Amino acid sequence: MKKISLGPPGLVFQVRILFQKNPYFVVNPNMKMNLPIADLHCDLLSYLALVPGADPYIKDQIACAIPWLEEGGVKMQVLAIYTNVEDASMRIASKQADLFGKLLQNHDQSLTAFNQEYIANVDKESCIGVIASVENAAGFGTEKSTWEEIYAQFDSIVEKVGQLAYISLTHHTENRFGGGNYTEGIGLKEDGKRLLDYMAGKRIPVDLSHTSDLLAEGILNHIDRHHLPIPVIASHSNFRAIWDHKRNISDEFALEVIQRGGLIGVNFLREFLDREVPERLYEHILHGVKMGENAISFGADFFYTLNFPDKNRHPFYFPLVENAGKYPSILEALRESMSEAQVRKLAFENVFNFYQKLWS
């Protein structure tokens, strides 16, 4: 039995690590404590890349600032490399990949890489494990980029960040690879197929969170038709059956993710939960647990909102989920409706098990 710090300063958890197929935390049931948290999406990197004077330690600037992550007991955090569809997309993506490396080097050992070594030695880790993802493949290539340039950019980003948690082919809009979630009638394009072919075998999941339904269908069909070894997740998506929004995932595609052994991360944005009812969060989570308790996880989607032009979107988050420090209270509320085993799966086990299996 070893004691390690897994949460806010001064909070010590007593854990032991069992290495069977998957490593996971076993917590003394007689101790009342916050579970460690794994979260599949935040936009700390684009905040640092694009906001003048951005500081990852300023809590009132972004809800996923490092102190908030520590306060919430976050042990694994995905940092998205986000770009719009624009001429500068490759440069901005490269800048964020560089910033990912600087975060690991310059921040007092509060962060470390979430990778195979981290999982294998998690009993010795007291810091937050972080891993990059790509949100919008426009960061790999503009509409005019050659495929030689796209391949080089892809390889360069992977080399800089070490591993990618997942890749989203699109964001809200259309790009050369396919249709985003706010587009109609645009599915998987030929360039999207070529990018999937390049991803195959690299142990990088494809993310359905920002696809049009037609693009999601095209991705799944292309993977199946060509027997591509590409895992499928929905990193930060709520359920359309609970809140009917194009940004949310349909039960049809949610079941595809679940049956393929993927993950679905519940999103905290008010626009995708319910614009008026904060507690709808719990309905999304419980719906996910009912569909596949081994897939449900968190994908909070915290990003810099202070300069967002559409004031109708403010506030972006209900007080219930307004920053990463809220995870303990969320889990405490869910204990009335979920078993302790299900709460643990949601908190961190599903994510840890998914990546341990993917990388083994």
Word description of this protein:
The protein is of the alpha/beta class and 360 residues long. The protein is globular, with a radius of gyration of 19 Å.
Fold blueprint:
Blueprint: E1 2-5, E2 12-19, E3 23-27, E4 37-42, H1 44-50, H2 66-71, E5 74-82, H3 89-106, E6 111-113, H4 116-120, E7 128-135, H5 147-161, E8 164-168, H6 190-199, E9 206-207, H7 213-225, E10 232-233, H8 251-259, E11 264-266, H9 270-273, H10 280-292, E12 296-298, H11 327-334, H12 340-359
Parallel strand pairs: 4-5, 5-7, 6-7, 7-8, 8-9, 9-10, 11-12
Antiparallel strand pairs: 1-2, 2-3
Helix pairs in contact: 1-3, 3-5
Binned, the helix content reads 25-40%
The major pleated sheet works out as: 7 strands, parallel
Q: Do you know the CATH architecture?
A: Alpha-Beta Barrel
Strand content: 15-25%
Radius of gyration: 19 Å
Kindly report the average pLDDT value. Answer: 90
In N-to-C order, the SSE pattern is EEEEHHEHEHEHEHEHEHEHHEHH
Structural class: alpha/beta
For the structure shown, list the relevant keywords.
360 residues; alpha/beta; TIM Barrel; 7-stranded parallel beta sheet; 3-stranded antiparallel beta sheet; 12 helices; 12 strands; 36% helix; globular
